[in-house]
Amino acid sequence: MKKLITFTLLLIFTSIAAQENDSLNLANCRQQTIQKYPLNNDFKHNYKVNELKIQNIKTIYLPVLNLTGQIYHVADVPHYISSNPMLEIPLIGQEQYKVMLEARQVIYDGGLIKRQKAVEESSLQVNNQSIKTKLYSLNEQVNEIFFLILIFQEQQKLLKLTQQTLDKQLKLVISGVKNGVLLPGDADVLKAEILKLEQSITELNAGKKNGLEILSILMDTTLTKEVNLIIPGLQNPKDEHNINRPEHKLMQYQQNNLENISQLNGVKRFPYLGAFGSFGYGYPGMNMLDDNAAIIYTVGINLNWNIWDWSKNKREKQIFSVQQDMINTQRKVFDKNLDIALSKEKNDIDKLSELLINDEKIIVLQERISRTKASQFKNGVITSTDYIREFNAETMSKVKRTLHELQRLQAIVKYNTLKGNLVNE
Fold first, then answer.
1. 260, burial (CB in 10 Å: exposed 0-12, middle 13-18, buried 19+)
2. In the predicted model, what is the mean pLDDT of the chain?
């Protein structure tokens, strides 16, 4: 008995899981599309490049070692010819050589390394945000294909219900023909209409299948035609000015990066203090009057200070200021185009909301007319052609209502996407 209960529960849970897997909402489609998109790999590439660049910058604090060697011939060497044997000076050979190990160590860089790190970090922000901006554009692509499939799906469901209604009506007509109340031609008219509906359903099914194939590619998965897309439950958006577009953050990061580069160029003019030393062996040694090879070494401190750069740094600051103004202009252009797009979507939402109100009124009237015509047709007062005409009018009114409702939802989703506020439904 316990095994039977366990097996039954397992079947129930499996059935529920299967039903959940057969349903798909817009938020899941967008999330999986972005997660599976190959461009995501560039995030780790950017971090790796940034890490390597920072490591290279840190090596500036480490001593620089250079090993050099020279063998050379000089045209002449210092010499002095004296008639006094007591003042005889050794003559150095013209073939000379030197092997040296040189070392340099930074003592003070004026903040150069710190500013270089800041530039690399801000560049990393720009590169990563640029990827996020490109990924965000995928949301619009998913929105379009999702609602295209949804329109095919919902119209297909509506036509199947319509077909069921006609199938029931056909059974009544066949019964009426047998009883001599209706003509055989009335049944043929209904059969022909049912076949037309089947053709329309087939076309809608093909449209949904094609859409699902595209969505499968975007999501990097396999979606069958049995998948049911869930209609988002959304209300008309409020007129709020909270814009959260990734492009805004990207342009802010670009300005920060320009500011860091400007500061980096500024510290390049600061004093630079370092220590140096060299140790080696060569001929001649440090004593030019000694005709023997000897150990050679030097130690010291060096100071570099670019006290005059002919206003180069000043002009570079002006360049960065102009570039920042260009970014501000880009933001204004972006915001203006965004306002235009938002205004269009808001007007479409208002228009479709009004159309839906009339759709409901039309459907109520058409259903009333269809019921009257169905009764008249059943009693042989009108022909099947007259009945089908009104029945098709009712069907078309319902199709329009479905289309307008999905278009309204699509406009709401697009409006929110334009503002950067994705709906999690």
1. buried
2. 88
Strands 23-24 and 228-229 come out as parallel
pLDDT tens readout for residues 28-47 = 999 999 999 999 999 999 99
**Cβ proximity of 410 and 147 under 8 Å:** yes
Domain enclosing residue 212, as ranges: 110-270+309-419
pLDDT in tens, 195-211: 999 999 999 999 999 99
Torsion of CA 179, 185, 191, 195, to 10 degrees: 180
pLDDT score recorded for residue 158? 94
CA–CA dist 51, 121 (Å, integer): 10
Distance of CA 133 to the CA centre of its chain: 5
Provide Rg for the chain, Cα atoms.
41
Helices (H) and strands (E) counted in the chain, each on its own, are 8, 6
In a domain, residue 154? The reply is: yes
Helix runs in 179-222, H state only: 184-219
- Residue pair 229/24 in contact (Cβ under 8 Å)? The answer is yes
In a domain, 118, yes or no: yes
Using the predicted structure, report yes or no on whether residue 80 has a pLDDT greater than 70: no
Look at residue 183 and tell me if it is in a domain.
yes
Burial of residue 33, with CB atoms counted within 10 A of its CB: 0-12 exposed, 13-18 middle, 19 or more buried: buried
CATH of residue 205's domain is: 1.20.1600.10
Cβ-based neighbours of 2, under 8 Å, separated by 6 or more: none
Residue with tokens 């058409």: 366
Quick check: bond before 232 cis, omega within 30?
no
Confirm if 200 and 161 have CB atoms less than 8 A apart.
no
The rounded distance, in Å, linking the Cα atoms of 178 and 125 is 80
Rounded to two decimals, the pTM is 0.84
pLDDT band at 287 (very low <50, low <70, confident <90, very high): confident
Q: Is residue 100 part of a domain?
A: no
Does an H or E element contain 42, and which? helix 41-58
- Total count of domains within the chain: 1
